[in-house]
Amino acid sequence: MGGLDVRMRDVHCWHGRTAAVSEVDLEIAAGQRVALTGTNGSGKTTLMRAVLGLHRHFSGTVLVGGCSARTATEWAQRRRACAWIPQKPAAGRFPLLGSELLASSGAAGEAADAAARLGVASLTGNPLHTLSGGQLQRMYLARAIGSIAAGADVLIADEPTAALDFDGQDEAADILTGLPVTLIVVTHDRALANRCDRVLEMAAGRLREIA
Ligand SMILES: Nc1ncnc2c1ncn2[C@@H]1O[C@H](COP(=O)(O)OP(=O)(O)OP(=O)(O)O)[C@@H](O)[C@H]1O
């Protein structure tokens, strides 16, 4: 089992002057699979985006494989180390087509193979905004598989099964929990959470371990 360890120490995140995440301390061993659950608006997405450098208004320490990120080069390294399945695509940004999303993994061939296995190969020429929610999640999962083929050792997935049909949820859970990486998955899907090694819960910006 591969993967990198992830360590957070006294992490706080803000949106403007509002604290969204407070005093988060977390140690995840290399290769562990961690489910991050909790109430809507409790700070899960914000915390994951901070790990990736997509939310910069934070304080504290986040180390991935022992490395911090401060410079643009270090943040670029962080994003290569961490595959990412977002809850929703960034509005108005590239890539626009499925094929461009898959190519952004750094391993377009492997991502395209995964897209075929996940049943969305015929949609790769379509603009992302025309895909259904479940088709888009399948495309992002395929991109993540490509990113891992390209060298990512951590997968951060934000509600990756929320839009999938029942069979798709089972299939995605199998794939996610079988990848040779450290997995942090934000989810409200109890079956997926139960398949992880640890379950953490966020409430009002604070984190606690529940299983
Ligand atoms: N761009 C933003 N600007 C201002 N406030 C924001 C922004 N994004 C999130 N927030 C606020 O930050 C808090 C945490 O939001 P976040 O999306 O991290 O929660 P979450 O736990 O992922 O929620 P959910 O389970 O509903 O996806 C919420 O109160 C939310 O309203």
UniProtKB/TrEMBL annotation:
* Gene3D superfamilies (UniProt xref): P-loop containing nucleotide triphosphate hydrolases
What's the source species for this entry?
A: Streptomyces bohaiensis
For the ABC transporter domain, which residue ranges apply? 6-210
Annotated coiled-coil positions are: none
Molecular function, one GO term: ATP binding
Pfam families named in the record? ABC_tran
Record's InterPro entries?
Answer: AAA+_ATPase, ABC_transporter-like_ATP-bd, ABC_transpr_LolD-like, P-loop_NTPase
Spell out the protein name for this chain.
ATP-binding cassette domain-containing protein
Lineage per the UniProt record = Bacteria, Bacillati, Actinomycetota, Actinomycetes, Kitasatosporales
For this UniProt record, the keywords arranged alphabetically read as follows: ATP-binding, Nucleotide-binding
